[in-house]
Amino acid sequence: MPEISESSLLIVDDAQMNRELLYRHLKNLGYTNIILADSGKRGLEIVASQSIDLILLDMMMPVMNGLEMLNHLKSHQEWQIIPVIIISALDEKEMMLTCIQKGAEDYLIKPYDRVLLKARVRACLEKKMLHDREFLNKQKLEAAYKELAVAYYELEIIKNELEALSHRDGLTGIANRRYFDKVLEREWNAAKREHKFLSLILFDIDYFKKYNDTYGHLAGDDCLCQVAIAASRVIKRPRDTLARYGGEEFAVILPDTDLKGASFCAEQIRFAIENLHVIHISSQINSYVTASLGISTINPSAELTTSQQLIKEADLALYEAKREGRNRVKL
Ligand code: GH3
Ligand code: MG
Ligand code: MG
Ligand code: MG
Questions:
Q1: What keywords appear on the UniProt entry (predicted)?
Q2: Cα–Cα dist 75/72, whole Å
Q3: Residues 312-329: what's their mean pLDDT?
Q4: Residues with CB under 6 A from ligand 1
Q5: CA–centroid distance, residue 254 to ligand 1 (Å)
Q6: Active-site positions?
Q7: How far is CA 269 from CA 22, 70, 146, 212, 311, in A?
């Protein structure tokens, strides 16, 4: 913050002698930055072009008098905070009152008392400085708030990205077990609440250990990705969730789907995997990678106790599919 003596003072007076006299008095009081204007119009031009801390304004001037200039200043959002001291030979109480009501800080009558002028100018400048400091602080605070809001917004984006990442399986890009558990619990509760069907498909690649043994673990990984892609092409409804349940086991949660719908979906998945035609010569079924699928469903009236029951039943069905020769769907 600059010193008070460095404040910029604007004298507006049509009479050169008055301007110079006031200029000298203010200089003697230690003010170094004093600008002179010979009319209200010129005064407003100066106010518009540079920062002014105090205006010492004559009242009787041709074209635009002091009151008119005061009105201009006080109706302008940026200028209304500049203090104005009227210095006039016009000794009329009515006019003095009007000026004070319009927002002038004081009304000094020429020839003014120099001690009074000194005190008034200083008081006005102190007030203006305080205002400027507060204004600056407010701006800094607003900028800080804005930065904070942006930071919060960015944090929210990162949080969402991290959360999405924590739901995904690193190898195949589909939902992982963690997310599967979450969704199953949510859909289980929704199905119970809304008395809707809920189906679950569990599927497992046939003779996958042999696949790894024959083609290597990396080829095995690639096979898992292809199976995930094939299955995800079948799952079209946005609320259905395909997840990697374990190593080479996958799961599909099908809300609002009965046994018939789930069977249809499972058969499509089975067909899509077989139809990938991924060569698997040590498979005992055909020479392609295949999968076995088990389905379980809760219907609205069923008395199943937990979502784990749904998993258990799908797992049993999957075991049956394996036992009956693999590459098939069992209920
Ligand atoms: P089945 O037809 O009865 O399912 O026989 P299987 O050989 O597929 O069953 P098993 O559970 O014995 O073998 C699963 C194999 O899956 C064993 C394991 O090495 C492999 N596996 C599990 N996770 C991964 C993985 O992320 N990448 C690869 N390449 N293999 C995996
Ligand atoms: Mg005059
Ligand atoms: Mg397995
Ligand atoms: Mg297997």
A1: Phosphoprotein
A2: 5
A3: 98
A4: 171, 204-210, 212, 217, 220-221, 224, 247-248, 322, 326
A5: 25
A6: 248
A7: 95, 83, 51, 22, 18
